[in-house]
Amino acid sequence: MADYDVQYDRDSGDWTAKRAGASRPAGRYDTQAEAHDAAAGYAERSGGGEVRDHRKDNNKIRNTDTIGKKDPNPPKG
User: Fold this and answer.
1) Fewer CB in 10 Å around end: N or C, the chain?
2) pLDDT(74) > 90
3) Which of 55, 27, 60, 62 is nearest to 41 (CA)?
């Protein structure tokens, strides 16, 4: 299982999908949606995990998706 972060790279001006704890991104993409889809695929192929989307302006986590496993904190209601 692996967790991935989708973050904006200010230096290159693109979005990255990076495995948690890795020094280099697994891929670079033009849009956040493309990076999120790629990160979800990486997580799925590694047995599941979390995909965390970060805000472009302040890099804080704005959304988390559980991929390929039971969601430990499902939405209520």
Assistant:
1) C
2) no
3) 27
